[in-house]
């Protein structure tokens, strides 16, 4: 069986992100890690990454810039969000995990397991972060990377 390889975008990893990273690596998946602290995304890369998806999946409301730019009080345009992320990569939720067809945003182990088709060791890891839409049975943080 061919080894799976995914792109893993992150910065300033916290305990939860480290746990997710270890989980993926322990499943035998090769990570192509891009540390946004050292290599920030360009405006073109951000626009391509968010594509036509709901931008709210990508925004980190815990970022200092989120509140400073007033994103907590109004819905900014896509262009404003892209420019904001170029100026402050912490506006992106982390990690962003992308393979050839799909991606996940955030530390939702259930969504990551489904996308990468790996076992969660029998644990229900849905962390209740609101990304799971029970009505249509889809994880809102999982999207198709193809246009």
Q: Output the number of helix runs.
A: 5
Regions with little confidence, pLDDT below 50 for 5+ residues: 122-142
What composes the largest sheet?
5 strands, mixed
Order of strands across the main sheet: 2-1-3-4-7
Shape call: elongated
Portion of residues in beta strands equals 15-25%
Structure description:
Helix content is 29%, strand content 18%. The longest helix is centred in the first third of the chain and has 12 residues, at 15-26. With 147 residues, it is α+β, with helices and mostly antiparallel strands. The chain is elongated. The chain has helices at residues 15-26, 43-50, 64-68, 78-87, 109-116; strands at residues 5-10, 30-35, 96-98, 102-105, 132-133, 138-139, 142-144. The strands form two sheets. A five-stranded mixed beta sheet has the order 2-1-3-4-7, covered by helices on one side. Strands 5-6 form a two-stranded antiparallel sheet.
What labels describe this entry?
147 residues, alpha+beta, Glutaredoxin, five-stranded mixed sheet, two-stranded antiparallel ribbon, 5 helices, 7 strands, 29% helix, elongated
Layout of strands and helices, then pairs:
Blueprint: E1 5-10, H1 15-26, E2 30-35, H2 43-50, H3 64-68, H4 78-87, E3 96-98, E4 102-105, H5 109-116, E5 132-133, E6 138-139, E7 142-144
Parallel strand pairs: 1-2
Antiparallel strand pairs: 1-3, 3-4, 4-7, 5-6
Short description:
The protein has 147 residues and is α+β, with helices and mostly antiparallel strands. The protein has five helices and seven strands, in the order βαβαααββαβββ.
């Amino acid at each position: 069986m061919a080894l799976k390889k995914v792109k893993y975008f992150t910065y300033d990893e916290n305990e939860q992100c480290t746990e997710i990273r270890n989980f993926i690596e322990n499943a035998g998946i090769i990570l192509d890690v891009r540390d946004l602290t050292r290599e920030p995304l360009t405006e073109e890369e951000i626009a391509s990454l968010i594509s036509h998806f709901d931008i709210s999946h990508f925004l980190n409301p815990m970022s200092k810039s989120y509140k400073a730019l007033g994103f907590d009080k109004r819905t900014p345009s896509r262009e404003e969000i892209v420019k904001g992320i170029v100026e402050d990569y912490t506006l992106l939720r982390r990690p962003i995990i992308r393979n050839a067809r799909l991606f996940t945003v955030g530390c939702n182990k259930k969504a990551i397991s489904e996308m990468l088709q790996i076992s969660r060791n029998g644990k229900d890891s849905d962390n209740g972060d609101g990304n799971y839409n029970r009505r249509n049975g889809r994880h809102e943080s999982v999207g198709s990377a193809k246009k």
